[in-house]
Amino acid sequence: MKRWLILILCFFPSLLWAAAGKLDAFEGDVKIIAKGATRNAAPGLEVNEGDQVRTGANS
């Protein structure tokens, strides 16, 4: 059983790091900070666990 699980995770590593959520809609200045990199938010963008969501004019 353990061998099958290890084999599956080797071929599909994305199963380990699933997104915590997805941005459907937003209004105003929204930025995502992940691992020290800042990116502008866009509809459909996945937000991972540990990401910071900054909103407002001074984000």
How would you describe this structure to a colleague?
With 59 residues, the protein is of the alpha+beta class. It has one helix at 2-11, and strands spanning 21-22, 30-34, 37-40, 46-47, 52-55. It has a three-stranded antiparallel β-sheet, with no helix packed on it. Strands 1-4 form a two-stranded antiparallel sheet. Strand 2 and strand 3 form a beta hairpin. The radius of gyration is 16 Å and the shape is elongated. The mean pLDDT is 81.
Summarize it.
The chain is of the alpha+beta class and 59 residues long. The protein has one helix spanning 2-11; strands at 21-22, 30-34, 37-40, 46-47, 52-55.
Which shape, going by the Cα principal axes? elongated
- What is the overall number of helices? 1
* DSSP summary, beta strand count: 5
H-E order: HEEEEE
Mean pLDDT: 81
Strand content: 25-35%
- Describe the largest sheet: 3 strands, antiparallel
Termini separation: 48 Å
Strand line-up of the largest beta sheet: 3-2-5
Classify the helix fraction into a percent range: 10-25%
Give unreliable regions as ranges: none
Alpha-beta content class: alpha+beta
From the alpha carbons, calculate the radius of gyration and give it in angstroms: 16 Å
Please describe the topology of this protein.
Elements: H1 2-11, E1 21-22, E2 30-34, E3 37-40, E4 46-47, E5 52-55
Antiparallel strand pairs: 1-4, 2-3, 2-5
